[in-house]
Structures are given as C-alpha cells and as structure tokens.
Specification:
Blueprint (H helix, E strand, L loop, with lengths): L7 E3 H25 L2 H18 L2 E4 L3 E7 L2 E6 L3 E5 L4 E6 L3 E4 L3 E4 L5 E12 L2 H6 L4 H17 L19 H16 L4 E13 L1 H41 L6 H16 L15
Antiparallel strand pairs: 1-5, 2-5, 3-4, 3-6, 7-9, 8-9, 9-10
Helix pairs in contact: 1-2, 4-5, 6-7
Pfam families: Band_7
Keywords: Membrane, Transmembrane, Transmembrane helix
Protein name: Integral membrane protein [Lactobacillus plantarum JDM1]
C-alpha cells in the first residue's frame, strides 16, 4: 500500500462556514418556532447537521507530522502539510510523526567471525517516509524497527572479526567503524523497507570483548603491538648497521673481513635493539 495525498483545503474557510451554518440554523429554528413555521425549523436543523458534518472534516496537522485518513476502514490518503485543513468528512485520522528519531540498541553479546564472544551496541537514526506502509504494513513500526535493528546488529557483527593480527587490510569491527556502519545501514534499510522507514544513519556505540575473554585478548593485543614495534626497530637497526659498514669502508679505507663484519653487525644490533642500557664489548683490534 503506497502513500497518496488526499483532498484537503484551508480549514479556516470550513471553520467560518461551520460557524455561520450553526448561527443561521439556530436563528431559523428560533424564528420558525416563534412563527410556528415548520419549514424554517427543518431548514435550521438541516443547517446545523451540515455544520456538524463539515466540522468532522476539520483536522490540525502539526509541523513534521502527518495525518493518515481512513473512511470506514479504507485508506484514502495522507495530509503532510502543517496547519488547519478541511478534508473528507466522517474520516478517522491517525497522527504519525515524520521527525528523525534515535533508537539505542541494548548491549548485545554475539560471536564475531572468528567465534570470539564480543559485546556490541549501536544507535539507529531513522524516520518514516511512507505513512500508509508504516501504519498498515506492520503491527507497530517502532517496535519493528527495534527488533530488526538488534537482529541486524547481531548479523553484521558475525560477518567481521573484532580485530586482526595478521592482515592489516582486512575489515574489522574495531579498525573500520565507517565500513561496518555502512554495511549495517544497508542491511537495516533492506529489512525496514517493508515498514516504510528510512535509515538515516547508524553508528556503533559500544564494542568490546566479552568479559570472559577480555583479559586474554588484551594480552594478545599487547603482544602483537610489541612484535610490531620490534619489527620496526629491527628494520631500522639493520639499515643503520648497513650504512655504518658502508661509511667505514668508504671514509676510512678500512679492510674489514667477513668475520669482523659479522661481529661488528652483531654488536651494533645488540646495542641498538636492546631496551636496557647494555654495554657491549666491541672488538676492533684486528681491523686494519
């Protein structure tokens, strides 16, 4: 069921006409009763009935609000303009908000792609774009958004690892929040099209390892960070050592044997890489 517009005009005109009809009908009834003129009484009563009939068509629509109209159970259209309007009489009018709203999901415990238990939560920003679908396609569109949001968060969390220690280019929940949010938005939009709801934005608000493995995974992260730092230090030390040997041979015309190069490289590497204030013994007595 697609949303459609319904007939509506300026309500102030209808309000004035209804008041005039009531006043005119009252005067006719009074004058007819005074003069014992049954036709005037009948016309006066008819005017009052018409005024009441017209008053039932008046409705007020607030800013960023819509009124969905049904006529004896049949959907006939929606009023999206704000103000006082006169529309089809004897209709039931459902008010529905068009404002942007937030939904904060609960903290969910799920397994990531590698089976690690994690805790995750998200904020969902949404708005109604099809009023008839939101009201009549699902039982309660707000509750529908909440349930589908939590289901989508669980599914998306299971598609990615929390973190990766061997492939920096792989998308993870911790390192790529933008890509994960885009994936969550796309999946939620696909689920909520049936409810006439548009997803404006999604963002992860909580992400952590579950309590039972948090300590072990923290140690793993620390170990990975230490290994990465060591790798950078070793690469720098190798570069410095190579440059040192080249400059010694070039600037001092020293003739260094292969064994001496190995020993010198070993001493330089130990000196550079060591975290403590080591005092290596560098033997250069045989250098000519």
């Amino acid at each position: 069921m697609q949303e459609k517009s319904v007939f509506h005009i300026n309500g102030y005109v209808g309000l004035v006409l209804a008041v005039l009809f009531v006043l005119g009908g009252g005067w006719l009834i009074w004058s007819g009763a005074t003069d014992d003129h049954i036709v005037s009484v009948f016309l006066g009563a008819l005017l009052i009935v018409i005024a009441a009939f017209g008053a039932s068509s008046l409705t007020i629509v607030g800013p960023n609000q819509a009124k969905v109209l049904t006529f004896f159970g049949k959907y006939i259209g929606t009023i999206r303009d704000s103000g006082l309007f006169m529309t089809v009489p004897l209709t039931y009018k459902f008010a529905i908000s068009l404002r942007v709203r937030n939904f904060n999901s609960a903290i969910l415990k799920v397994n990531d792609l590698r089976g690690n238990p994690i805790e995750i939560a998200a904020v969902i920003v949404f708005k109604v774009v099809d009023t008839s679908t939101a009201l009549f396609a699902v039982d309660d569109y707000e509750q529908f958004v909440e349930i589908q949001s939590e289901s989508a968060v669980r599914h998306v969390a299971s598609e990615y690892p929390y973190d990766t220690f061997d492939d920096a280019k792989k998308i993870t929940l911790r390192s790529n929040p933008t890509e994960v949010s885009d994936r969550l938005t796309a999946e939620l939009q696909e689920r909520l099209n049936v409810a006439g709801v548009e997803i404006v934005e999604t963002r992860l608000t909580h992400l952590a390892y579950a309590t039972e493995i948090a300590s072990a995974m923290l140690q793993r992260q620390q170990s990975s960070a230490i290994l990465s730092a060591r790798k950078v230090i070793v690469e720098g030390a190798v570069s410095i050592t190579e440059e040192t040997l080249k400059r010694l041979e070039k600037d001092t015309n020293m003739q260094i044997s292969d064994d001496q190069k190995v020993q010198l490289m070993n001493n330089l590497m130990v000196t550079i890489i060591s975290e403590r204030g080591t005092q290596p013994m560098i033997n250069t007595s045989n250098v000519k």
